[in-house]
Amino acid sequence: MWKKFKEWADIHGPIYRTSMMGQQFIIISDEKIAEELLVKRGNKYSGRPQIRALFDHKTGPGYVALMDRQDYWKEQRKWVHAAMADFHRHHFYGVIESEVRRFLAVLLIDPAKFHAYTREHCGRIMSRLAWDDATQGKENGESADCTLGRMSVSGPIVNTMTPLWHIPWALNPWKKFERAREDYQRAWWLNSFQLAKQRYLRGDLPENTWSYRYFAGLQQSGNSTLQQSAKDEEFASCMLGFQNLVGVITIAGPMEFFIMAMSLNPKWQKKAQEEIDRVCGDRLPTTADIPELPTVRACLKETLRWRSGVPLGVPHQCEVDDEFRGEKITKGTVILACEWAINRVPEKYPDPENYRPERYLEKGWPTYQEPLSRYPNMREGVGMHTFGWGRRTCLGQHIVDDEMFVSGAGLLWGFNLDRKRCPKTGEIIEFDTEATNAHVILEPDPFPCDIKPRSSERAARILQLYQDVRDELRV
């Protein structure tokens, strides 16, 4: 769909109107127009459209990113923003680095499962940060994938043919499935929250968790025993649970695309590895190395441009009647800033179809910024539309920045990522680099990649690094 929207933009211009099943859409393919509507007029364009296959997502408290701008949304967004910023100041207390050691070890043992391991890796980090239970990593990834399926246009047919949602309960498979799915997910989040609360009261919940931060805040406000109503516990468990869940696929997909990009672009893989070797030597890269590894950061940044994880953009909804360039925009109109098209405006991104990390490293490119010890990154500067617009900007920029850097640099430090060859013919196995699932947030379809340690010494080092932290990981 995103490629069709770009095709229409090339014909009709950077902003146009269309409709589907009676719903009005405005499609934007220009960064400045998106800023005008979704940032400068954010007080009018920051609603979320109804996703029919979900219950009550606009009123909360389950999914802050899908709520309308109401009290639940304001309170959850404020808390999550502060928690992310606080943890980023401490670079997430080394949790990412220790989980990367495990990630490299499992890839060394069974590299063919890199798709599943990448998602589990991201799930473990988020579950460990939420309530110190990395064992939830795999289930967290599966829950995220299922939730995304429910909220995507390509998901249940009721998301496009909404009258079907109103079929009586006894004959309605979509409502029955969603009731069971949401009830299970809410119960899981609530149980994790209550277990974390018990651990906090016993004094054995680590301080480097968001749940610890939440409970400490309750005590600072005068609630020393952490007694809460069922409604307040539901609110808090959903806030922490969704923060946990949304950080899985939003990072797993880009990391899988990064593996793809490196295997397809050996020249850039080699440049990044040479930079890592020069700065880190036999030492695994950490967040402390961020300023010294601009090539690694450029390769990661270009991955998000080349294969956007949210190519349609996350939809906004017009909250009041408005007018733009003489055109009436009625309340309820859905606004899509098409990331796929915005990332391919040739004036901003020359040679847009090709993977060109040098656009962030060499003077003369429109996206070049100095100093290279700071830029490019995932927190500021050019290309931040990847994380959304205005009041709906993604709150996870800080963890994306740290997690993708440490994971990506660690992969290149430990492994060579090559095209897979047919064992019978020796020919490179071709695949569609644009093949993905059809969720609103994408992961690539499984693709072949040959992942091998860079040397026997590096393989032994990977295993030793994992052994050093194994006792502190819940595996």
Automatic annotation (TrEMBL):
Domain of life: Eukaryota
Names of required cofactors: heme
An annotated Gene Ontology molecular function: oxidoreductase activity, acting on paired donors, with incorporation or reduction of molecular oxygen
Residues holding heme: 394
Keyword line: Heme, Iron, Metal-binding, Monooxygenase, Oxidoreductase
UniProt xrefs under PROSITE patterns: CYTOCHROME_P450
Gene3D superfamilies linked: Cytochrome P450
Family: Belongs to the cytochrome P450 family.
Protein name: Cytochrome P450
